[in-house]
Specification:
By secondary structure, this protein is an alpha/beta fold. The chain has helices at 24-38, 60-77, 97-111, 126-138, 181-190, 204-216, and strands at 5-6, 14-19, 42-47, 81-84, 115-119, 149-153, 173-176, 223-231. The model has no long low-confidence stretch (mean pLDDT 93).
């Protein structure tokens, strides 16, 4: 069993967060994003889909509202650099994986990140799984790659809802977000249309409970957990 790692973020890194939908970044690593920004790191967030087009009776107005929520959430976290792709929502398995990989490769070349955050490989949501696979493919450990660390985050109502016959998320790498919980909560509040009432796991109460558990399990008030995909010294 892998020992838990409590993270101490070094300064001046280029960080790339690759999320399937707007709100995944806040759910999965909102506190960590805010911490990176506060410590002087450059952060770019990438969204693969608009996150609403697969819903019944969705409209252009729904897409615009989600985009506005995204921009407000990122501003709260301190992110000024982001990219939005228009892959089909909840249908990313319907396009060639290579098309997704090439988009990520372009951003890797442009931003030269040393740290990459993305989805857990066995989330219930298909877009999450495809995004993870594309990230791992684009970040192949070849000579000259800037990527030294790849961490997968958990997203409530997807990570914990997957079948027990699949590998479980391993929260091996813990980030203390105690000072940044309020920013994460404010960012989540921007996505009111995506939040649910308690006891749904995507309620603010459950999101805070998870942050409390991840933090208190390691001696601080709030935390975010990540599964280690790669760490190179």
């Amino acid at each position: 069993m892998t020992d838990n790692l409590i993270e101490k973020l070094p300064l001046k890194h280029n960080v790339l967060v690759v999320a399937a939908h707007p709100d995944d970044e806040a759910l999965g690593c909102g506190g960590t994003i805010a911490k990176h920004i506060a410590q002087g790191d450059f952060v770019c967030v990438v969204f693969m889909t608009a996150g609403v087009s697969s819903r019944e009776n969705s409209s252009n107005n729904d897409t615009e509202l989600r985009k506005l929520a995204m921009e407000q959430a990122l501003a709260i976290l301190g992110v000024h650099n982001f990219h939005c792709y228009d892959f089909p929502d909840n249908k990313m398995d319907s396009v060639p994986l290579l098309s997704v990989v090439k988009c990520i490769e372009q951003l890797l070349k442009r931003y030269q990140p040393s740290i990459v955050y993305s989805h857990f490989s066995h989330d219930l949501n298909i877009d999450h799984r495809i995004t993870h696979q594309a990230v791992m493919t684009a970040c192949r450990p070849t000579k000259g790659s800037s990527v030294k660390k790849i961490l997968s985050f958990e997203v409530l109502s997807s990570t914990e809802w997957q079948s027990y016959s699949t590998p479980n998320f391993q929260g091996q790498y813990i980030v203390d977000i105690s000072q940044y919980w309020s920013k994460k909560e404010q960012a989540l509040q921007c996505y009111q249309e995506e939040l649910r009432k308690f006891p749904h796991s995507r309620s603010l109460e459950c999101i805070e409970a998870l942050a409390t558990l991840r933090g208190a399990s390691h001696g601080f008030p709030k935390g975010e957990a990540f599964q280690v995909e790669r760490i190179l010294d």
